[in-house]
Amino acid sequence: MFEGSRGPDLTDIPSAVAQPKRRSSSQLVWLVPIVAVLIGGWLAVKTILEKGPTATITFKTAEGLEAGKTKVKYKNVEIGEVRTIGLSDDRSQIIVTVEFAKHAEDFLVDDTRFWVVRARVGGGQISGLGTLFSGAYIGLDIGRSTTKRNEFTGLEIPPIVTIDQPGRHFILRSDDLGSADLGTSIFFRHTQVGSVVAHELDQNGKGVTIKVFVNAPFDQYVNANTRFWDAGGIDMTLDASGVKVDTQSVISILLGGVAFESPAGTGAFPEADPDTVFRLFASRAAAMKQPDREMREFAMYFSEPLRGLTVGAPVEVNGLLVGEVKNIGFEYDARLKKISFPVDVAIFPGRLRALSQEGMAEPTPAEWKARMDTLVEQGLRGQLKTGSLLTGQLYVAVDFFPNAAPAKIDWMKKLPVFPTQPGTLVELQATLMNISKKLENMPIEQISADLRQALQSLNRTLVSADHAVKRMDKELAPAAKSTLEDARRMLNTAERTLASDAPLQQDLRTSLRDLSRASQSLRELTDLLDRQPESLIRGKKEFKR
Amino acid sequence: MNDSAVTASQFGLCLCHGCGRLSRLGGDGHDMCCRRCGAALHPRKPDSIARTWAFLIAAYILYVPANVLPMMRTGSLFGAQVDTIMSGVVYLWHSGSWHIALVVFIASIVVPLAKMFSLTYLLISVQLGWTHRPMERTRLYRILEFVGPWSMLDVYVVMILVALVQLKGLATIQPGLAVAAFGAVVALTMFAAMAFDPRLLWEPKKDHHV
C-alpha cells in the first residue's frame, strides 16, 4: 500500500513476538448465549409445566377482591390466585379469572363451589375474622363430579356444609319459610345436629323448599316416619284446649330452628335416604299428629250459632281427638228457601284404630257404613261444645245420646250428613225457653187481681189494728202511768225503810240485841234452875267454894 | 472516510493494551504478543462482532424472564404480594407516584431495551459496512458505555429492600428470580458493549476480519 513512502520510519518500531498458539477462544464466547438459552428455556418450560388451569367465576360483587392479590384457598391452602376481575357483558355481575396451581386441576369439576370468604357476622356466629387483616380470599368446596368445568358461578354466601362433611341432606317442603333461614340449626331432642343449607321459593310461589343437612351420626335418626317442624320462636297456641307454649331452646327462640323427631311407638322404619322429601310442619303438635291417610268426611248441621268454631277445630269422641273441622260452609236451599251452615268435619278412623290394642283392620266402605249406621242408631250424635269458657272456642264432640231423637246418616248427599244434637248451652237455652213459656201461660192477670184484693183487705185490717192501738194508747196509758208512779213511790219507801241507817233498822238491831240478852238471861235462869231448883223457892244461894 | 484514511493497522502497527508500546506486527497479525510486557496484541478487539453478538443474544434471552418472573416477594401480616417490574410500575402509576413510575420504567425497561437495540443497530451497521454517520454512531456507543452500570437501579433497590426489610412474621421481602435475570441482562449488555470495537465503525467492511 503506502509502504514507507510518506509515513515515519517504521523499522524502528520493534516487532511483536510471535506467540505460540494458545487457545481458540473465539468460539467459547458462544457458550454465553447457549447458557442463557438453557436458563431461559428451563424457566419457560418450568412456567408452562407449573401453569395450572384457569377458570372464571362470576360473583355479584367484587368487594374485597383484588386482581393479582386475592388468593384462592382450600382448607386455607393456597391453590390459586385471582388474575383479573372484569364485568359481565350485561354489567350485572363480575367475572373473576382465577389461575390455579397445577395440582388443582382435579378441583375444577362440575359441582365445585366457590365463594368469597369475608368477615361475616350473622346466624349467631362470626366467621372469617382473619380476613379483616389479610383481605378476602376465595374459598372453595371441591365437588365429587368427574366432569371438568372452567366456568363457575360463585356463591354469595358460604355454604353451610361442605361436600366432605359426613351426613345427609334432606328436603323439606313447607307453606312458608317460618323461622328457617340459612344456617338455622336443626335440633333433635334439643341437640343441635345440623343446619339449613338452602331454601327457595317454589316455582309456582305456593310453597317453600328447604334443604337441610343433618350431620353424621345423627342422620341415622331420620327415618321414613320422621317429622320435621319449625321450632323457631315461641310457639303459642290458643285453641279449644287452652293456651300452649312450646319452645325448643333459647337459641331457637332468637334465631329460629327446625326440629325433628320420630313419633314414639311407630315401629322400626328404615333410615331415610339422602334427599328424601319431608313435610315441614308448623309446630310440634302438628308434626306429631298421626298421618291421617284415611279420612272420612261428614257434614253436620248445627242449630246453634257457629261463633267460636274455627276451621281446624278438633272433633272429639269421648275427649279423644279423632278429626277436625275442615270447612264451614253456607247453603241455600232454593226449594225450601232455607239457608243452612254445614260444618264439614273430617274423621280419621285410623286414630281410633291406633288406640286399639289388638289392631283392627281397615273396614270396607260397606262395613264402615253399616258400622256407622249402627252407632248412630245407638245414639251417636255430633254436638257443639265449648272448649274453653275463656276464649269461647267451640269444638265438635261426637257422643252417645241414648235419648236422642232417632236419626240416620244421610248417605245420599255429597257429604254424608251426620245427625247432630243440640249442645249443652242450647239445651240450657231450651229449658229457659220452656220456663218462660210456662210463665207466659200463667193467669198473671187474675193472680194479680186476687193479690190486689188480698192486699186491700190486709190494708183494712191493718188500719183497724192501728185504731185499736191508738185507743189503747189514749185510754190505758194515763192509768198505767199513775200506777207506775205509785209503784215507784212504794219502792222508794221500801228502799228508805231498808237502808242501813234507817230508824227501823236501828230499832230492829236494838231489839235484836235486847232479845239476845233476854235469851241469855233466860239460859242462865234455866241453868240455875237446873242446878238449884230450890232457888225458885228459897232464892238464890251464894256459890260456895 | 478521508479523515481516517491512515490507520495503524494499515502499516502493520499495533499498540499494546497492557503497556501502551507500539509494536510492529508480523505475518497476519495473529498470535503476537508485546515484546515488552508480553500482553497479547490485537490490531482490533478479537472476534469483536461475534462476541458482541453472543453477549447481546444472551441478554435478549434473559430479558424475557427478567420481566416476566417476579422481581420481589413481599410478605407481610396483611398478605403476600409478588411483583414483577411491570406490575411495580403499574402499581406506582396507579397509586399516584407517576414520576417514580416513570423513573423506574425508564431505568428498568426502556434503558436496557434501548441499549440492546442500539448495540444491535451498531453491530448490523458494522456488518453491513455502512459508512454513513460514523460520528453519531460512535457517540451512541459512548453513551452506551456510560449508561451501562446505571441500569442496575432495580437490582440495587431490591437488594437494599431485601437487606432492610426482614422483620420475621411482620414483613419480609425476598428477591425473585427476575433479579438475577435482570442483573445478568445488565451485565451481558455491558460485556457486549465492551466486546464491541468502536473502531470498526470507521472502517470499511473488508477490514473487519483483520
- The helix content of chain A, as a percent range, equals 25-40%
Structural class of chain B: alpha+beta
The largest pleated sheet of chain B is described as:
4 strands, antiparallel
Q: What is the highest CATH level, the class of the largest domain in chain B?
A: Mainly Alpha
Q: Any low-confidence stretches of chain B, pLDDT <50, length ≥5? A: none
- Which secondary-structure class do the elements of chain A indicate? alpha+beta
Give the number of DSSP strands of chain B: 8
- Strand coverage percent of chain B: 5-15%
User: In which range does the helix fraction of chain B lie?
Assistant: 40-55%
Q: What would you call the shape of chain B?
A: elongated
Low-confidence stretches of chain A: 1-5
SSE order and pairing:
The complex is a heterodimer of chains A (545) and B (210).
Chain A: E1 17-18, H1 31-50, E2 51-59, E3 71-74, E4 77-87, E5 94-101, E6 113-117, E7 120-122, E8 125-127, H2 131-134, E9 137-141, E10 151-153, E11 167-174, E12 185-188, E13 191-201, E14 208-215, E15 227-230, E16 235-239, E17 242-246, H3 250-255, E18 257-261, E19 276-281, H4 284-288, E20 296-301, E21 314-317, E22 320-328, E23 331-333, E24 338-340, E25 342-347, H5 349-355, H6 365-377, E26 380-386, E27 394-400, E28 417-418, H7 424-441, H8 444-498, H9 503-531, H10 535-538
Parallel strand pairs in A: 2-10, 3-9, 11-19, 12-18, 15-19, 20-28, 21-27
Antiparallel strand pairs in A: 2-5, 3-4, 4-5, 6-9, 7-8, 11-14, 12-13, 13-14, 15-18, 16-17, 20-25, 21-22, 22-25, 23-24, 26-27
Chain B: E1 13-15, E2 22-24, E3 32-33, E4 40-41, H1 48-68, E5 72-76, E6 79-83, H2 85-94, H3 98-127, H4 134-147, H5 153-164, E7 166-167, E8 171-175, H6 177-195
Antiparallel strand pairs in B: 1-2, 3-4, 5-6, 5-8, 7-8
Helix pairs in contact in B: 1-3, 1-6, 2-3, 3-4, 3-6
What does it look like?
The complex is a heterodimer of chains A (545) and B (210). Helix content of chain A is 30%, strand content 29%. Chain A is an alpha+beta fold. Chain A folds into 4 domains: 48-153, no CATH class; 167-288, no CATH class; 296-438, no CATH class; 503-530. In chain A, the strands form 6 sheets. Chain A has a 7-stranded mixed beta sheet with strand order 6-9-3-4-5-2-10. A 7-stranded mixed β-barrel of chain A has the order 11-14-13-12-18-15-19. Chain A has a 7-stranded mixed beta sheet with strand order 26-27-21-22-25-20-28. The longest helix of chain A is centred in the last third of the chain and has 55 residues, at 444-498. Chain A is elongated, with a radius of gyration of 60 Å. The termini of chain A are far apart. In chain A, 21% of the residues are buried. By secondary structure, chain B is an alpha+beta fold. Chain B is 50% helix and 13% strand. In chain B, β1 and β2 form a beta hairpin. Chain B has 2 domains: 1-43, no CATH class; 47-204, Up-down Bundle (Butyryl-CoA Dehydrogenase, subunit A, domain 3), CATH 1.20.140. The longest helix of chain B is centred in the middle third of the chain and has 30 residues, at 98-127. In chain B, α2 (85-94) packs antiparallel against α3 (98-127) and α3 packs across α4. β1 of chain A pairs antiparallel with β3 (32-33) of chain B, so a sheet runs across the interface.
